[in-house]
Structure formats: structure tokens, C-alpha cells
Design goal:
452 residues; single chain; seven-stranded mixed β-sheet
Length: 452
């Protein structure tokens, strides 16, 4: 039995170097530039040494308060002791024999857990993969096999991954699609319910024009007889934390059920307690045919899943879905522990508490700063959209860059989003304390003042 190694506590937020990055980090950044292609992007110049809870320490001893959580990957916090122990125990027994060759308990246990926890009606099954994009690819394969149809619909402002089908379903051209065509054929875009930028009358006079547009498309431009699946994020992540209204989502679901179209809900960023419910679908009352899951499921260990109604999931034959590393024993054990932690440490309540704090502070800032055009979110998944004018709503990406740069020098990590890159999004680990949230918001407020 090897000695257990658990990440210890690290100091509170602090910046000890004159500028970020410090000298030790710079050495590795120079090597990164020499040996790692520039296409592998980096949001910050931080070279992490260790992380715990809501804090990341770099090679120079600077400690950052993390409002990114690995882009929603560390919902239960960095370096959770229970997850680390589970992984260590698993390494002593079984690393990866490939589930397609010899089965193992962890895969089946996790499939059972996910099938039982997935929202909606009917019996469910789950297959496991490695990444969110791979989950999306498999979900589309399953839908096509089940329906015998080929067309796939996604939404404007969507992000579903970087592999070819997932990239095709994504909306943001730069940096995700430009120069990588031709894209996968028989894929189509429908309007997103981007309420802040609604072209159909706006929030105050909402007549679901976006939904009517979809209905008209399926009458005039697209034949439902050719559409296998419609995939939607209940909260569009990379698109700028655009909350799709429940009425819009329910309308899409109804259209799918009436036309034998598989309704796929992408919960890769919004799942696992992030929104104050286990899945955002629950808050919208959805009954997905298939769900794609990843990111925080493994607390940093690569794992993803497609969970769905058993008759749909059983459409592919043996060997037609899956992959060599899909549902690795390490990933399965990490995920099983994550699901336990969410329950035992009441992560749903923590997400709701963080959300209330963020809402209060961000709405207060909106009153003080005309450049904040919109505040939106649910649970611990919030965003503010910056504009040059509230009347014209002209996007203001330049100020977002200034804010993130200033905050980083003060020891707080914020990241941007949005098809115009003018949205600041907040994905704090759900273990972030009230004091840490307030600390981060104080830095944000100063950053906005400095950036005007």
C-alpha cells in the first residue's frame, strides 16, 4: 500500500512578484513557446504548481483566486481529498484494461448512477467516453442510427467542441472554425434565444419570435423527415452564458417529439450542481432524449458520458460506439466520488448561495457602470456583458481584456466568453467561501474603474 498523498491547504490570495508572470513561470512559458504549438491556446500566463479549493499557486509563489475552475471543470474544488484518495486506491488495482476487452465494475457503477440521476422520464442507459466533444460525436451517431435520418440542428452562439462534427455544430468562427473547412454536411443553425439581443421584440415584449422562426424553418427550409437530432445547451457557455428561456427549450423539445427528432441537451458546462440543480435541465423541466456530460464529472480526470433513453441508446450495434480509453477506471472512480461529494457536501446549496452573492454584487455594479449592459445567470454560473452604449448595445471586448489583465495582476483569475468576446463569465468552484466571493468582486469593481 503506497503512502497517500493529499494536497494540503495553500495560503490565501497573494501576489509576491512585481508582475505576473514571475521569473520561474517565464522560464517555462519560453519553453512552452518553443515546444508547444501556438494553436494550443492559453487564457492566462499562469504556470500552476498546485491548487486547492478555489485557489491556484504558481511556480513563483503567487496565489490566485480562481473564478474559472478550469472552465467549469472543478465544480467541487481543486484537489478534493476524497477524489484524490479514490484515484490513488484505483491505481493500485486497475489502470486501464479497456472496457471493450474486459469489463470492470467502475464503468457499470457510473453508468447506473448517471442513468438514475438523469432528469426526465423512462429507463436510461449511459456510455462513457473521454471528452465533451467525444460525447457530442457519439450522441449524434446514436441519434442518426436510431432515427435513420442524417440532418443535425444546432443553435447560433453554440459551442459543442473542437472535433469535426462538434466544431461544425459550434457557432463562433474565430478561433474555433476559421480555416478548418469544409465542415460536416447536413448540419443547420437555428436562432438562439439571446434575450439581451433579441431581434423579435425583447424580454419585455417576448412573443417567442425565436421559436416561431424555428417552426417556420421546419416548414419552408428544412424537412423534419431529414432531421435526426437537435442539440442545445440550456445555458450557452462559450456563447456568453446565454440562458435559453424554459419556454423556448420546452418548445424545441415539443417540436422534436412531434417530428421524431432526437432532443439532445448538452450539459457539459452547466451540469453537476453548477446551476443549483444537478443539471440545468431540471430547472427548465426538460425531458431530454440524450444528454452529453463531461467537464466537472471527473474533477480533472478526463471522462465524459452520453446518457439517454434506453431504446435510443440501444440503437447502435456492438462496437459501433465507444473507444479504447472511454470510461477509464480512474475517470470512473473520480466521477463516482464527485457524485458523492455533491450530495454529502451539499454542493447544490453552495451553488445557490454563490449565485445570490454574485447577483447582488453584479447588479450593484450595473447601476454604477454604464458599460455593463446585462447581468445574467443562475446558480454559480453568472456573466456580465459589456457594451459601449446601452442604447446601441455595441459590444465592448476591449474593456474585458483590460479587466482580466488588471485582475490577474491582483491575484484573481477571470475569463471571457461570448461571440463578440465582450462577456465576463464567472465559474467559481462551489467550495468558494463568502469571503472569497466578496474579495473577487472587490477586485472586479476596481478593475472596471481602472479600465474606463
Amino acid at each position: 500500500m503506497t503512502e497517500k498523498i493529499i494536497i494540503g491547504e495553500i495560503p490565501a490570495r497573494k501576489v509576491i512578484t512585481k508582475t505576473i508572470p514571475g521569473n520561474k513561470s517565464l522560464e517555462w512559458i519560453q519553453k512552452r513557446q518553443q515546444y508547444v504549438p501556438k494553436g494550443v491556446g492559453n487564457i492566462t500566463p499562469v504556470v500552476a504548481k498546485t491548487a486547492k479549493g478555489a485557489l491556484i499557486e504558481d511556480l513563483d509563489g503567487n496565489v490566485f483566486l480562481d473564478f474559472a475552475a478550469g472552465i467549469g471543470m472543478q465544480n467541487i474544488g481543486h484537489g478534493h481529498g476524497a477524489v484524490i484518495e479514490a484515484i490513488q486506491e484505483q491505481t493500485e488495482n486497475l489502470l486501464h484494461p479497456c472496457f471493450h476487452v474486459t469489463m470492470y465494475e467502475g464503468y457499470i457503477k457510473l453508468a447506473e448512477k448517471l442513468a438514475k440521476k438523469a432528469p426526465g422520464t423512462g429507463e436510461k442507459k449511459a456510455m462513457l467516453a473521454n471528452s465533451g466533444a467525444e460525447a457530442v460525436e457519439n450522441a449524434i451517431k446514436i441519434a442518426r442510427k436510431y432515427t435513420g435520418k442524417t440532418g443535425v440542428i444546432s443553435l447560433e452562439c453554440a459551442f459543442h467542441g473542437r472535433t469535426y462534427m462538434a466544431m461544425t455544430l459550434t457557432s463562433k468562427v474565430n478561433p474555433y472554425k476559421n480555416g478548418f473547412g469544409p465542415y460536416v454536411p447536413e448540419t443547420y443553425k437555428i436562432p438562439s434565444a439571446y434575450c439581451y439581443r433579441c431581434p423579435y421584440g425583447g424580454r419585455e415584449n417576448c412573443k417567442m419570435g425565436c421559436l416561431e422562426r424555428v417552426k417556420n424553418l421546419l416548414k419552408g427550409e428544412l424537412s423534419p423527415d431529414n432531421i435526426a437530432a437537435l442539440i442545445v445547451e440550456p445555458i450557452q457557455g462559450e456563447g456568453g452564458f446565454i440562458l435559453q428561456p424554459p419556454a423556448f427549450l420546452k418548445g424545441l423539445e415539443k417540436i422534436c417529439k412531434e417530428n421524431n427528432i432526437v432532443f439532445i441537451v448538452d450539459e457539459i458546462q452547466s451540469g453537476f450542481a453548477r446551476t443549483g440543480t444537478l443539471f440545468a435541465s431540471e430547472g427548465c423541466g426538460l425531458d431530454p432524449d440524450l444528454m452529453t456530460l463531461s467537464k466537472s464529472l471527473g474533477a480533472g480526470i478526463p471522462i465524459s458520458a452520453v446518457v439517454g433513453k434506453d431504446e435510443i441508446m440501444d440503437a447502435p450495434g456492438a462496437g459501433e460506439i465507444g473507444g479504447t480509453y472511454g470510461g477509464s477506471p480512474l475517470g470512473c472512480q473520480a466521477a463516482l466520488e464527485v457524485l458523492k461529494v455533491i450530495e454529502t457536501e451539499n454542493m447544490l446549496a453552495k451553488a445557490q448561495r454563490i449565485g445570490k452573492q454574485l447577483e447582488k454584487r453584479l447588479q450593484s455594479m450595473k447601476k454604477d457602470f454604464e458599460v455593463i449592459g446585462d447581468v445574467r445567470g443562475v446558480g454559480a454560473m453568472y456573466a456580465i456583458e459589456f457594451v459601449k452604449s446601452r442604447e446601441t448595445k455595441e459590444p465592448y471586448p476591449e474593456i474585458v481584456k483590460k479587466i482580466t489583465d488588471y485582475a490577474l495582476q491582483k491575484g484573481v483569475i477571470f475569463i471571457s466568453a461570448g461571440i463578440y468576446s465582450n462577456v465576463l463569465r464567472f465559474l467559481p468552484p462551489l467550495v468558494m467561501t463568502e469571503e472569497q466571493v466578496e474579495d473577487g468582486m472587490d477586485v472586479l469593481e476596481k478593475a472596471i474603474k481602472k479600465s474606463l
